[in-house]
Protein backbone atom coordinates (compact mmCIF):
# COMPACT_ATOMS: atom_id res chain seq x y z
CA UNK A 1 0.00 0.00 0.00
CA UNK A 2 2.76 2.43 0.86
CA UNK A 3 4.51 1.69 -2.44
CA UNK A 4 1.30 2.38 -4.37
CA UNK A 5 0.80 5.66 -2.51
CA UNK A 6 4.38 6.74 -3.20
CA UNK A 7 4.05 5.94 -6.91
CA UNK A 8 0.84 7.98 -7.15
CA UNK A 9 2.12 10.91 -5.08
CA UNK A 10 2.06 14.33 -6.74
CA UNK A 11 3.51 17.58 -5.44
CA UNK A 12 1.09 20.22 -4.18
CA UNK A 13 1.35 23.93 -3.51
CA UNK A 14 1.68 24.79 0.18
CA UNK A 15 1.31 28.55 -0.24
CA UNK A 16 -0.31 30.89 0.39
CA UNK A 17 -1.27 29.98 3.91
CA UNK A 18 -3.94 31.19 6.31
CA UNK A 19 -4.61 30.34 9.94
CA UNK A 20 -7.76 30.52 12.02
CA UNK A 21 -7.78 29.56 15.67
CA UNK A 22 -10.01 30.47 18.57
CA UNK A 23 -10.45 29.47 22.20
CA UNK A 24 -13.80 27.82 22.84
CA UNK A 25 -15.60 26.39 25.85
CA UNK A 26 -17.11 22.92 26.19
CA UNK A 27 -19.19 21.67 29.11
CA UNK A 28 -17.38 19.39 31.53
CA UNK A 29 -19.81 16.54 32.28
CA UNK A 30 -17.36 13.82 33.33
CA UNK A 31 -17.65 13.59 37.13
CA UNK A 32 -14.19 12.00 37.50
CA UNK A 33 -12.61 14.87 35.56
CA UNK A 34 -14.55 17.39 37.68
CA UNK A 35 -13.30 15.73 40.89
CA UNK A 36 -9.73 15.57 39.58
CA UNK A 37 -9.85 19.27 38.68
CA UNK A 38 -11.27 20.19 42.09
CA UNK A 39 -8.54 18.16 43.86
CA UNK A 40 -5.81 19.79 41.79
CA UNK A 41 -4.90 16.59 39.93
CA UNK A 42 -6.15 18.01 36.64
CA UNK A 43 -4.20 21.25 36.62
CA UNK A 44 -6.35 23.63 34.62
CA UNK A 45 -8.90 26.27 35.39
CA UNK A 46 -12.53 25.45 34.98
CA UNK A 47 -14.93 28.02 33.62
CA UNK A 48 -18.61 28.66 34.11
CA UNK A 49 -20.54 27.15 31.19
CA UNK A 50 -22.45 29.97 29.49
CA UNK A 51 -24.36 27.73 27.09
CA UNK A 52 -22.41 29.23 24.19
CA UNK A 53 -19.17 27.51 23.17
CA UNK A 54 -17.83 30.66 21.51
CA UNK A 55 -18.16 32.63 24.76
CA UNK A 56 -15.79 31.88 27.64
CA UNK A 57 -17.45 32.05 31.04
CA UNK A 58 -15.74 33.40 34.13
CA UNK A 59 -13.04 31.28 35.75
CA UNK A 60 -14.42 29.02 38.47
CA UNK A 61 -13.60 29.98 42.03
CA UNK A 62 -14.83 28.89 45.43
CA UNK A 63 -17.74 31.30 44.99
CA UNK A 64 -19.15 29.76 41.83
CA UNK A 65 -18.25 26.03 41.98
CA UNK A 66 -21.93 25.05 41.95
CA UNK A 67 -22.32 26.51 38.44
CA UNK A 68 -22.25 24.16 35.45
CA UNK A 69 -18.59 23.72 34.54
CA UNK A 70 -16.79 24.04 31.23
CA UNK A 71 -13.23 23.72 30.02
CA UNK A 72 -11.50 26.17 27.76
CA UNK A 73 -9.89 24.56 24.76
CA UNK A 74 -8.99 25.53 21.21
CA UNK A 75 -9.82 24.46 17.66
CA UNK A 76 -7.69 25.55 14.72
CA UNK A 77 -7.56 25.37 10.96
CA UNK A 78 -4.63 25.99 8.65
CA UNK A 79 -4.84 26.29 4.92
CA UNK A 80 -1.46 25.58 3.37
CA UNK A 81 -2.12 26.19 -0.30
CA UNK A 82 -3.91 23.05 -1.48
CA UNK A 83 -3.68 21.34 1.92
CA UNK A 84 -6.18 21.76 4.75
CA UNK A 85 -5.10 21.06 8.31
CA UNK A 86 -7.68 20.49 11.07
CA UNK A 87 -6.28 20.99 14.60
CA UNK A 88 -8.50 19.14 17.09
CA UNK A 89 -8.00 19.26 20.89
CA UNK A 90 -8.48 15.57 21.62
CA UNK A 91 -8.83 12.12 20.12
CA UNK A 92 -11.45 12.25 17.38
CA UNK A 93 -13.44 9.10 16.69
CA UNK A 94 -12.90 7.98 13.06
CA UNK A 95 -16.62 8.36 12.34
CA UNK A 96 -16.13 12.12 12.70
CA UNK A 97 -13.37 12.12 10.10
CA UNK A 98 -15.20 10.39 7.26
CA UNK A 99 -18.85 10.79 8.27
CA UNK A 100 -19.59 7.10 8.66
CA UNK A 101 -21.70 7.49 11.81
CA UNK A 102 -23.85 4.47 12.63
CA UNK A 103 -27.33 4.62 11.10
CA UNK A 104 -29.65 3.31 12.31
CA UNK A 105 -28.48 4.16 15.79
CA UNK A 106 -28.09 1.36 18.33
CA UNK A 107 -31.22 1.48 20.55
CA UNK A 108 -29.02 1.52 23.67
CA UNK A 109 -27.36 4.84 22.76
CA UNK A 110 -28.19 7.76 25.05
CA UNK A 111 -28.94 10.32 22.30
CA UNK A 112 -30.36 8.35 19.36
CA UNK A 113 -32.13 11.45 17.99
CA UNK A 114 -28.98 13.60 17.96
CA UNK A 115 -28.17 14.86 14.48
CA UNK A 116 -24.91 13.56 13.04
CA UNK A 117 -22.05 16.02 13.32
CA UNK A 118 -20.45 17.19 10.07
CA UNK A 119 -17.28 15.25 9.35
CA UNK A 120 -13.78 16.55 8.64
CA UNK A 121 -14.26 15.52 4.99
CA UNK A 122 -17.47 17.58 4.81
CA UNK A 123 -16.05 20.64 6.59
CA UNK A 124 -12.66 21.06 4.95
CA UNK A 125 -12.84 22.50 1.44
CA UNK A 126 -9.53 20.93 0.39
CA UNK A 127 -9.42 17.48 -1.18
CA UNK A 128 -6.13 16.78 0.63
CA UNK A 129 -6.01 17.28 4.35
CA UNK A 130 -4.19 16.48 7.55
CA UNK A 131 -5.84 15.92 10.88
CA UNK A 132 -3.81 16.77 13.95
CA UNK A 133 -5.35 15.37 17.12
CA UNK A 134 -4.28 16.48 20.59
CA UNK A 135 -3.51 19.88 19.02
CA UNK A 136 -2.71 22.29 21.85
CA UNK A 137 -4.94 20.37 24.29
CA UNK A 138 -6.35 17.03 25.45
CA UNK A 139 -10.07 16.93 26.22
CA UNK A 140 -10.21 13.15 25.82
CA UNK A 141 -12.16 11.18 23.27
CA UNK A 142 -14.46 13.14 20.97
CA UNK A 143 -17.37 10.79 20.30
CA UNK A 144 -20.34 11.29 17.96
CA UNK A 145 -23.23 12.32 20.22
CA UNK A 146 -25.63 9.78 18.74
CA UNK A 147 -23.15 7.04 19.75
CA UNK A 148 -22.73 8.36 23.33
CA UNK A 149 -23.55 5.61 25.83
CA UNK A 150 -23.21 5.89 29.62
CA UNK A 151 -26.79 5.13 30.73
CA UNK A 152 -28.28 1.61 30.81
CA UNK A 153 -29.46 -0.15 28.76
CA UNK A 154 -26.08 -0.10 27.07
CA UNK A 155 -25.46 -0.29 23.35
CA UNK A 156 -24.04 -3.31 21.56
CA UNK A 157 -25.34 -5.73 24.23
CA UNK A 158 -22.80 -4.53 26.79
CA UNK A 159 -23.29 -4.80 30.56
CA UNK A 160 -21.55 -1.50 31.31
CA UNK A 161 -20.62 1.80 29.74
CA UNK A 162 -17.77 2.10 27.29
CA UNK A 163 -14.14 3.11 27.64
CA UNK A 164 -14.33 6.15 25.38
CA UNK A 165 -17.03 7.87 27.40
CA UNK A 166 -15.04 7.37 30.61
CA UNK A 167 -12.20 9.29 28.98
CA UNK A 168 -14.13 12.17 27.45
CA UNK A 169 -15.20 15.52 28.87
CA UNK A 170 -18.77 14.79 27.81
CA UNK A 171 -21.44 14.14 25.22
CA UNK A 172 -21.41 17.68 23.82
CA UNK A 173 -17.71 17.67 22.90
CA UNK A 174 -18.21 16.37 19.34
CA UNK A 175 -20.96 18.79 18.27
CA UNK A 176 -19.06 21.73 19.77
CA UNK A 177 -15.64 20.83 18.35
CA UNK A 178 -16.95 20.07 14.87
CA UNK A 179 -19.00 23.30 14.76
CA UNK A 180 -15.98 25.28 15.98
CA UNK A 181 -13.90 23.77 13.18
CA UNK A 182 -16.60 24.66 10.64
CA UNK A 183 -16.53 28.27 11.89
CA UNK A 184 -12.71 28.45 11.74
CA UNK A 185 -12.78 27.23 8.12
CA UNK A 186 -15.55 29.70 7.28
CA UNK A 187 -13.52 32.59 8.75
CA UNK A 188 -10.73 32.17 6.21
CA UNK A 189 -12.49 30.66 3.21
CA UNK A 190 -13.36 33.18 0.49
Report the order of strands and helices.
HEHEEEEHHEEHH
Kindly report the average pLDDT value: 93
**Largest sheet, strands/sense/barrel:** 5 strands, mixed
Low-confidence stretches: none
Fraction of residues in β-strands: 15-25%
Tell me what the structure shows.
The chain has one domain (15-188). Helices cover 23% and strands 21% of the residues. It has helices at residues 2-8, 31-38, 95-98, 120-123, 163-166, 173-188; strands spanning 17-27, 46-48, 69-80, 83-87, 91-92, 128-132, 141-142. Strands 1, 2, 3, 4 and 6 form a five-stranded mixed beta sheet that branches. It has a two-stranded parallel sheet with strand order 5-7. A hairpin with a 2-residue loop joins β3 (69-80) and β4 (83-87). The model has no long low-confidence stretch (mean pLDDT 93).
Keywords:
190 residues; five-stranded mixed sheet; 23% helix; globular
Topology (SSEs and partners):
Elements: H1 2-8, E1 17-27, H2 31-38, E2 46-48, E3 69-80, E4 83-87, E5 91-92, H3 95-98, H4 120-123, E6 128-132, E7 141-142, H5 163-166, H6 173-188
Short précis:
The protein is an alpha/beta fold and 190 residues long. 23% of the residues lie in helices and 21% in strands. The strands form 2 sheets. Strands 1, 2, 3, 4 and 6 form a 5-stranded mixed sheet that branches. The protein has a two-stranded parallel sheet with strand order 5-7.
